[in-house]
């Protein structure tokens, strides 16, 4: 029986064999194959006894006995070794059950947990189905304690930042010929996936593996306890994972140091993710602007559109010498094009309406996935997935950290003038995609508070307080205002009575022109302006209190309204042909 039909003889769908009992809230195995319209009574044994494999009597993959955690002694903490499976490489779902039934439309919408990513990024896509067997997929997951590297969780009313990591470790059947055979598993593909607070948009920011950066000190959990791995200056970004035993928590810390964005969770996978996920959805359509025969990646396709899966899909995302400029940045571009297509396929009705594809997606995804403890259960991935699924693909933008060539031509350096504004956009939850409703609301708000004349900088009178928690913030701002912007009627009032999350400017009605000028100078959002009701008297100054969003004197509090010119972008709802 092949991979598409195993466990599905006689039109029996494996996902339908496990049903939710509304009285207990648990998923239970339905053994009566003749039941078509009504649910038979369930015995206590059916509710409490974990399913066993018929041949061996051992706990089935869905039972809690099957739960796996990160084992000590691996080359890289958190990187999984592959388990033996059946002949087709997967774990068979339970084979007994009732007849296949049509899934309610509401469940179909909830069935797909999607985002994107070459290794770990695509894994999110099929991780959770609302009607699937939680215990079974829980046993597939591999978890790592990242020693406090993440935020510890995500909240429904806040932005979400997930680090998606693909390693070059050659684990998994059939992967001996890929990558560096001696690699301990470096961060080969890394994407910071930012989902906006209002869930209208998302940004997937690729970080080049050859970026020269500083890797901070990294506490790493081992079987013997927490080990402190020293940092390294001016080295390749990909060495933030694997080198000297660094775990994914170290990659999270490195990304935060580069971008200034706090990472909530990580997800990591190896080469098998691309092969198994694309096979599960029946292939992904890609487009080539020219013929490609790449001896290194082993991709051999003529120009035009193609549906690829398995080994051919992996070859596509590994191709770099035959596209663009032939380097890692060109490989990133082709990966982003591939991921956009994969997102569209997984969001299609063809995938969502197929219980068979949904089962195979969830099976492939969870087997390929390693996550931090904070999302190390299917129920938590489900909650995360429901948040991610709110974003329309047309408002997902792939971008790459702006870089310039290093003198050695083998590595790259951060392009500060373009990278910092891009990082600021993510920090301030500003979309790279134009979301019309959000953009119009912002314009209306700005127009209400910022419309009108501006005072001269020399006429702006402001008292600066430090509520940011950053030492010297008020003094550095005062120095910048007076020396760089000509705001001479400004004073340093020291620490504010309490810390603030957001910078605020309190002003009187007759100081509105001064407030507008200071907002222009400091890049203050309309929400930072707090107009009073009584006019100022004499030399009374406005009150500027710096909050935790303060990044430095002269750095705009809000992110730019749009991405800097020249930043490479790919939108998920559009097909682009690799050149």
How would you describe the overall organization of this protein?
- The chain has 579 residues and is α/β, with parallel strands linked by helices.
- It is 26% helix and 20% strand.
- It contains 15 helices and 25 strands.
- Helix 6 (272-280) crosses helix 7 (310-318) and helix 6 runs antiparallel to helix 10 (355-368).
- 45% of the residues are buried.
Q: Based on helices, strands and strand pairing, what is the structural class? A: alpha/beta
Could you name the ranges where pLDDT drops below 50 across 5 or more consecutive residues? 1-18, 27-74, 81-132
Evaluate the radius of gyration. 27 Å
Mean pLDDT: 76
Shape: elongated
- What composes the largest sheet? 8 strands, mixed
The tally of beta strands, per DSSP, is 25
Instruction: List the total number of helices.
Output: 15
Strand content: 15-25%
Please tag this protein with its features:
8-stranded mixed sheet; 20% strand
Secondary structure blueprint with pairings:
Blueprint: E1 18-21, E2 26-29, H1 44-48, H2 105-110, H3 120-123, H4 134-138, E3 142-144, E4 160-167, E5 187-195, E6 202-206, E7 212-215, E8 218-222, E9 225-229, E10 232-236, H5 248-259, E11 265-269, H6 272-280, E12 284-288, E13 292-294, E14 299-301, E15 304-308, H7 310-318, H8 328-346, H9 349-352, H10 355-368, E16 370-372, H11 378-388, E17 396-400, E18 403-405, E19 412-414, H12 416-427, H13 436-450, E20 461-466, H14 473-484, E21 489-495, E22 504-507, H15 512-522, E23 529-531, E24 542-546, E25 569-571
Helix pairs in contact: 6-7, 6-10
């Amino acid at each position: 029986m092949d991979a598409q039909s195993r466990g599905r003889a006689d039109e029996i769908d494996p996902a339908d064999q496990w049903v939710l009992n509304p009285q207990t809230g648990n998923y239970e195995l339905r053994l009566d194959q003749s039941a078509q319209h009504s649910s038979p009574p369930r015995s206590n044994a059916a509710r409490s006894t974990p399913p066993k494999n018929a041949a061996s009597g051992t706990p089935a993959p869905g039972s809690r006995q099957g739960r796996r955690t990160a084992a000590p002694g691996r080359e890289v903490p958190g990187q999984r070794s592959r388990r033996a499976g059946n002949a087709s490489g997967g774990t068979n779902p339970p084979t007994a059950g009732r007849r296949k039934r049509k899934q309610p439309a509401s469940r179909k919408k909830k069935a797909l947990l999607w985002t994107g990513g070459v290794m770990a990024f695509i894994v999110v896509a099929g991780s959770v189905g609302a009607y699937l067997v939680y215990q079974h997929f829980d046993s597939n997951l591999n978890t790592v304690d990242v020693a406090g590297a993440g935020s510890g969780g995500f909240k429904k009313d806040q932005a979400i930042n997930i680090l998606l990591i693909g390693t070059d470790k050659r684990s998994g059947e059939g992967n001996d010929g890929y990558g560096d055979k001696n690699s301990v598993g470096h961060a080969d593909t890394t994407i910071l996936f930012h989902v906006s607070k209002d869930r209208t948009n998302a940004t997937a920011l690729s970080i080049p593996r050859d970026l020269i950066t500083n890797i901070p000190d990294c506490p790493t959990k081992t079987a013997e306890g927490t080990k402190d791995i020293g940092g390294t200056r001016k080295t390749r970004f990909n060495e933030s994972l694997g080198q000297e035993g660094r775990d994914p928590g170290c990659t999270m810390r490195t990304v935060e140091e580069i971008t200034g964005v706090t990472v909530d969770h990580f997800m990591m996978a190896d080469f098998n993710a691309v092969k198994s996920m694309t096979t599960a959805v029946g292939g992904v359509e890609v487009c080539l602007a020219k013929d490609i025969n790449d001896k290194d990646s082993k991709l051999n396709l003529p120009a035009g559109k193609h549906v690829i899966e398995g080994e051919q899909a992996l070859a596509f995302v590994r191709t770099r010498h035959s596209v663009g400029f032939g380097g890692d940045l060109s490989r990133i571009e082709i990966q982003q094009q591939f991921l956009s297509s994969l997102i569209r396929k997984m969001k299609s009705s063809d995938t969502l309406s197929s219980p068979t594809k949904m089962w195979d997606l969830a099976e492939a995804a969870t087997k390929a996935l390693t996550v931090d403890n904070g999302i190390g259960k299917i129920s938590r991935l489900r909650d995360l997935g429901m948040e991610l699924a709110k974003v329309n693909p047309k408002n997902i933008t792939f971008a790459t950290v702006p870089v310039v060539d290093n003198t050695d031509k083998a590595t790259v350096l951060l392009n500060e003038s373009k990278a910092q504004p891009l990082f600021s956009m993510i920090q301030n939850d500003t979309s790279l995609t134009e979301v019309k409703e959000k953009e119009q609301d912002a314009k209306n708000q700005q127009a209400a508070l910022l419309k009108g004349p501006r005072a001269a900088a020399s006429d702006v009178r402001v008292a600066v307080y430090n509520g940011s928690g950053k030492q010297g913030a008020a003094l550095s701002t005062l120095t910048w205002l007076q020396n760089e912007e000509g705001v001479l009627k400004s004073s340093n009032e020291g620490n504010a009575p309490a810390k603030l999350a957001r910078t605020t400017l309190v002003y009187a009605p007759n100081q509105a022109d001064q407030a507008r000028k200071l907002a222009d100078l400091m890049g203050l959002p309309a929400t930072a302006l707090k107009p009073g009701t009584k006019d100022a008297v004499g030399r009374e100054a406005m009150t500027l209190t710096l909050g935790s969003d303060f990044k430095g004197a002269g750095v705009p509090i809000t992110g730019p309204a749009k991405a800097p010119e020249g930043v490479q972008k790919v939108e998920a709802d559009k097909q682009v042909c690799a050149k």
